[in-house]
Amino acid sequence: MATQPSLGAEAPISHTVSREDYEYVWPLPPRRRPPLKDYSAESLREYLATAPLDEVDIADPMYWETDTHWTFFKRLRDEAPVHFTGVNANRHRGYWSVTRWADIMAVDTNHQIFSSDAHLGGITLFDMDQDFIMPMFIAMDQPKHDVQRKAVNPIVSGSNLQAFEALIRSRTQEVLDGLPRGEEFDWVDRVSIELTSRMLATLFDFPQEHRRKLTWWSDIATADPEVPGNLQKEERQAALLGMLQEFMGLWNDRVNDPEPKGDLISMLAHNPATRNMPPMEFMGNLVLLIVGGNDTTRNSITGGLKFLNDNPAEYAKLRANHGLIEPMVSEIIRYQTPLAHMRRTALEDTILGGQHIAKGDKVVMWYASGNRDERAIENPDAFIIDRPRARQHMSFGFGIHRCVGNRLAELQLKILWEEILARFDNIEVVSEPERVPSAFVKGYKSLMVRIPA
Ligand code: HEM
């Protein structure tokens, strides 16, 4: 494995509780899931409609790759809204699924009890590798979280967003004008990845010609190592260390500037709260910002086109009234829910939805389910572009970790749809998308489309 480049003195990493307090062994039987190829989406749907709730590990990537998880979440919301999965979940050492809107809110807004700390496993169902901890402010508790969040917040201030608008628009125009007519192409590659990687390179002032590296790092940082074809642990760690090395060069360029510039690296290198970060913490925050600015917006760009094709009456409504773009953007983000879950670790025994949660338990807030909770959202399974109170969704989370980049993501999507409607009467989806096998990043590998000649 590559050695870590040095970035100032190693500072002690602060965290509220020691790992030992939380170590426990769950006596789980071996996993019983047959390999993905043995299942069709149809058979999985049938299975999930009737299988005993305790038997199913809904975090299994096969349910996300096949988009078959919906009925099971409805069953959980109705029958067992705070539910422990132990059997078959041994790779996650057992976890609580929280599936109703109100219970998810209760967890997300109670950071005193529900911790995000990387040393307890962090914010995804997968525990962060304890021999390769990447502290990042999304996986920190107070007070350090707030201090670091404030260091990068200016990148998405109102005035910065205004300044970005013209650039986002001209790039969007360029990308859309370069699309082929009358032939099939992959929307994910040509549009979703292209636009988000260009944006991210701007945020970091990273060389535009190497922007696809950002997509690659983002994808490997979130990939499920058990899915065939994904990088194994050591390969993944080596790739992330390579990323660190490359960003160290940018850091070293900027740290000696007399004044901070407007990009994220410069902000981190000059802010007293972050300028002495240990290398692993710099890497952690890079991963956070790269994944935050990349996968999520990318999958909303793809999802939007798919949803409009699946709902031609909504597409017609949009063509007739471009004023619906703004509420539609929020509806796309709700309907897609690009991050299917965030996870917390209980810092003390507590009661949630009538269930006893023990100190150290993993608690998973399934935003993908909360966004379809009939108790909070009317007709939640329908995609309705002029939905009243469209911004009432949980895709950006709530509480102290609520998404930093939400306004930027909305702006990118709004401009994209304005520019699409200005040039194309129709973009046809020609086949079912290929989906990402992950219970965390809920998205698409490819979506084949055609713009009529
Ligand atoms: C946090 C979703 C776009 C940067 C989050 C969280 C979610 C989320 C669910 C965690 C919330 C919680 O734990 O309560 C999304 C979605 C996006 C998006 C759905 C697009 C549609 C972006 C963009 C950026 C970004 C464009 C960067 C420019 C961040 C950061 C955090 C975060 C830095 C950590 C905030 C903290 O811990 O205080 N996002 N995000 N996100 N997001 Fe986003």
From TrEMBL:
Keywords: Heme, Iron, Metal-binding, Monooxygenase, Oxidoreductase. InterPro entries: Cyt_P450, Cyt_P450_B, Cyt_P450_CS, Cyt_P450_sf. Pfam families: p450. It comes from the Bacteria. GO terms for molecular function: heme binding; iron ion binding; monooxygenase activity; oxidoreductase activity, acting on paired donors, with incorporation or reduction of molecular oxygen. Belongs to the cytochrome P450 family. This is Cytochrome P450. The lineage of its organism: Bacteria, Pseudomonadati, Pseudomonadota, Alphaproteobacteria, Sphingomonadales.
